[in-house]
Amino acid sequence: MSEFKSGFVTIIGRTNVGKSTLINLLVGEKVAAIANKVQTTRTAIKGIVNRQNSQIIFTDTPGIHKPKHKLNETMVETSFTSLKDADIILFLVEATSKDIGKGDNLIIQKIQESNQKAILIINKIDLVKKEDLLQLIEKYRNQYPFEAVIPISALQSKYRNIILDEIEKHLKQGPAYYDIEEYTDQTVRQLAEETIREKALTLLKDEVPHGIYVEVEKLQLRKNKEKKDIYDIEATIYCIRESHKGIIIGKNGEMLKKIGRLARIEMEENFGLKVNLKTWVKVKENWLDNPSIVNKFKLK
After folding, report:
1. What is the rounded distance in angstroms from the CA atom of residue 100 to the CA atom of residue 118?
2. Protein fold of 188-297
3. Which of 167, 3, 12 is nearest to 87 (CA)?
4. Cα–Cα distance for residue pair 111/116, rounded to 1 Å
5. Virtual CA dihedral for 171, 176, 181, 187, nearest 10 degrees?
6. Which residues pair with 233 in a beta bridge?
7. 3-state class of 89 per DSSP?
8. Cβ neighbours of 291 (radius 10 Å)
């Protein structure tokens, strides 16, 4: 029998390159919010993969971008802090890039400083010609001695085991840190907040920027009339302007109802039981620069 291996893997990359899609693919469960806009992930989210001879703990980090306020600074700091504790770094870039840009060069520099093993994942290969991809691979190989370079499309499940097999090769012998039934260390409260925020970001498109956060104020497990478990969840969506509040609520409250309905359906699938969800919208103008709120997004 092979020796059991375990280790921590950090996924890092610029904003909107597909990190959350990748971690959900690798874990096989939805643990990271996915919305087609930058800075969806604010905290470092752990996803756990249990294999026959290994346990791999993934951390999905906020995308690297130029900070504009306190929240952005915290997000970038969280991403770079997580590199030091990783056994392996998955560096995700886009195949559509012609050259290595400033943001990716900065990440390579931070990987060098961490002195950790790194695997380069090139995403969205379905959007480029093979010769352009080969040129990009060559440029990255000249910049850093990656353990492997794996071109993928994070939307296709066939790449899952290719990446996991490569990671497992570089892990050391170690114990299972989490129960084999677990796939994330996020609490039900955190998963609920992430789910509501993702649905809001997806449905609101570009009407409301990233100045929203969600806080679950009540989370209670009880038995319903049929003696089945049900979660009572009450959550507030905070935004930075009164005009945004109107957009989130929508005409006759339709948008807020839609956000709540989609979030509830997904939570019921994830939690495996019924959810009674109530949502409100409040304005908190300067929360993006409020340390007591922003600190919630720091790497714990």
Report:
1. 16
2. GMP Synthetase; Chain A, domain 3 (3.30.300)
3. 167
4. 7
5. -90
6. 219, 277
7. strand
8. 8
CA distance linking residue 76 with residue 44, whole number of Å: 11
- The full DSSP string for 93-133 is EETT-SS--HHHHHHHHHHHHHT-EEEEEEE-GGGS-HHHH
From the candidate CATH numbers 3.40.1390.20, 3.20.20.70, 3.40.50.300, 3.40.30.120, the one assigned to the domain spanning 5-173: 3.40.50.300
Q: Pinpoint the residues of the chain covered by CATH 3.30.300.20.
A: 188-297
Distances (CA, A) of 236 to 36, 213, 220, 279: 23, 8, 16, 6
User: Taken in order 263, 265, 268, 270, is the CA torsion positive or negative?
Assistant: negative
Q: What is the CA radius of gyration of the chain?
A: 20
Would you call 228 helix, strand, or coil by DSSP?
coil
CB 281 within 8 A of CB 249: yes
Q: For residue range 178-200, what is the model confidence (pLDDT) as tens digits?
A: 776 665 656 678 788 888 988 88
Q: Is the CB of residue 117 less than 8 Å from the CB of residue 170?
A: yes
**Closest among 93, 183, 79 to 139, alpha carbons compared:** 93
Whether residue 161 is predicted with pLDDT greater than 50 in this model: the reply is yes
User: Are 6 and 176 in contact, with CB atoms under 8 Å apart?
Assistant: yes
Q: What is the pLDDT of residues 23-45, one digit of tens each?
A: 888 887 655 444 343 444 444 55
Judge whether 23 and 31 are in contact, CB under 8 Å: yes
Task: Please tell me the distance from the alpha carbon of residue 34 to that of residue 38, in angstroms, as a whole number.
Answer: 10
Pairing assessment for the beta strands 54-60 and 88-94 based on DSSP bridges: unpaired
Which of the residue ranges 67-81, 102-116, 143-157, 162-176 would you say has the lowest mean pLDDT? 67-81
Task: Give the integer Cα–Cα distance in Å for 273 and 295.
Answer: 31
C-alpha 27 chain-centroid distance: 12
